[in-house]
From TrEMBL:
Residue intervals of the PilZ domain: 6-88
SUPFAM superfamilies the record matches: PilZ domain-like
One Pfam family of this chain: PilZ
Organism: Novosphingobium anseongense
Protein name: PilZ domain-containing protein
Region Disordered, annotated ranges: 95-117
Ranges of compositional bias, category Basic and acidic residues: 107-117
Length: 117
């Protein structure tokens, strides 16, 4: 895909904070998420990443998402997610029922009970 094709992907401008982990490190770096789509995001921060780096980003209400750095320009960078997410979940208010991703929804109470073996 060239740059003009990438612009056809729906994305929303927003400003939320997220945590980023680099390969081989458990250190977390705080970044700003400038825009977000199902397939990726544009981030900004002091952390130095390189094109092709495999990274993980902890998005609000979603959790850790794996991806790779697609481009870098100054302190901004693009990330392509390994698996698509629902960006509406990341934009929802923290703690609201709509903020819980279906993939991260807690099991019903009876399913969480300890089983006797």
């Amino acid at each position: 895909m060239d740059g003009s094709e990438n612009r056809q992907i729906a994305r929303d401008s927003l400003f939320v904070m997220a945590d980023l982990r680099l390969p081989g490190s458990n250190d977390e770096h705080r970044i700003k998420v400038r825009n977000l789509s199902a397939g990726g995001l544009m981030g900004e921060g002091a952390v130095r990443v390189s094109r092709g780096d495999e990274i993980e980003i902890k998005l609000r209400n979603v959790g850790w998402v794996a991806g790779s750095v697609a481009w870098v320009q100054d302190d901004r960078f693009g990330v392509a997610f390994r698996d698509e997410i629902d960006p509406k979940v990341a934009r929802a208010s923290v703690g609201s029922d709509s903020a819980v991703s279906p993939l991260h929804r807690p099991a019903p109470r009876e399913a969480r009970a300890l089983r006797k073996i």
